[in-house]
Write a structure and sequence with these properties.
Number of strands: 18
Distance between the termini: 64 Å
Oligomer: single chain
Number of helices: 14
Radius of gyration: 22 Å
Shape: globular
Amino acid sequence: MASQPAAHAAGLRVLRTTRVAPAPPAGEPSLPERALPLIFMDAGCLHAQPVERVFFYRLGPCDDDDVDAVLSRMEESLPRAIHAFYPLAGRVRPTPGETNRYELLYQPGDGVAFTVAEHDGVGVGVDELADTDEPREVARIATFVPELPKGGAVLALQVTVLPPDRRGLALGVTVHHSACDGVSSTHFLHTWAAACAGDRVLPEPPVIDRTIIRDRNDMYDAFASPASEAKHAFDSPDVAGKLLATFTLSRQQLQNVKDAVAGEAARRGVAPPRCTSLVATLGLTWLCFRRAGPDGEDGPRGDGRAHLVVPGDHRARLEPRVPEKYLGNCIGPGFATAHETELATTTTTADGLFTACAAVAAGIDEAVRGEPTYWERWVERITEACADDMSLSVAGSTRFGVYDMDFGFGRPAMVDVVSVAKTDAMSVAEDRSGSGGIEVGIALSPARMERFRRWLADAIALLSSSSHCN
């Protein structure tokens, strides 16, 4: 382990940054050098922004020494988890001797940057950050997210002690998407949490074998080539001044959306789309996002169509079937498209919801079927979606169990996906209360946030009143 001296920045006092290397179980040899080739699904994320999550925790009443003991347990349990997920301690680099090919290389001595910090600034206490659904400045939360070390590192961790009285913790996790998807990164976090909590049996280890998935040279070349237009699909927009809001759609509110969509289908005399709770969440959020409009006076660029990109896990859908614990990327986009006029200028909420939810359901269904044309048009459709400067994508999943991430001092009070501010995305997670709803996070400029929240509140109120009348 190598430490760096403490640093100071924007109210944050960095106590130390340590490189934590994998530690084999007693009696096992150290890991040798290993290179894991990236496949086309990984290459599609080479130029993507890293995924940045922050888990906010409250600590019980105790003295400062106990807080330090918590930090020590987190750091001391980390090598065991990293050993199982050793590629995350490595770095992405061009594959020697090959053109436009990349690999995830682990070498003895590699490790994950682990930062311990304290923050005593105004407005960054655990109560202010975790107890509210009011919009918060992205800049305040981004303080708790570590930067990836230069040189192709794919994972960095930061634990920040928060006021009041050192009773809060912010765990910041930054993962480069070329190394793995959210299924894999949260698998790692659950493993680390179990090790820290002292569980004798850790979650099932990951399957580290990229030959399981049949590679596609055509798609790999399209993503990795320096001349590829797909590289610009992941350009980062300006995040200065953005606000991040987290809100929860209750089980009843989602049922109201489903009822409204079914009612509109009956009015039109058509079969209703498959409107799951996730489809209802995405459809309602997408509708309000489009109705909130762009930041400027001009309308969105593009061909008059609105786009939503929904990631889907293909582990259970490929042939041969990919193990559930596969470490890497095994996700594919579902493309929801609708005419802008059918979303932003429809006269009724039910009409707009039907259009949005039907498009989301159709996009997910196409990805699930995985027919040849779906795979062949990936790059084209990603580029098409990004030509619309109001395109929206989805990060996270209700299946990741982020609110079950207990390191031995309780469940998180709040989990934020901070990187949605850089990727024009909305995040989704299970309802932190466990009551069956879905939690959504979105980052917008103050003006757009105000319009979005107004549209969302009006839609929820209208749907609620309609359900009472039926």
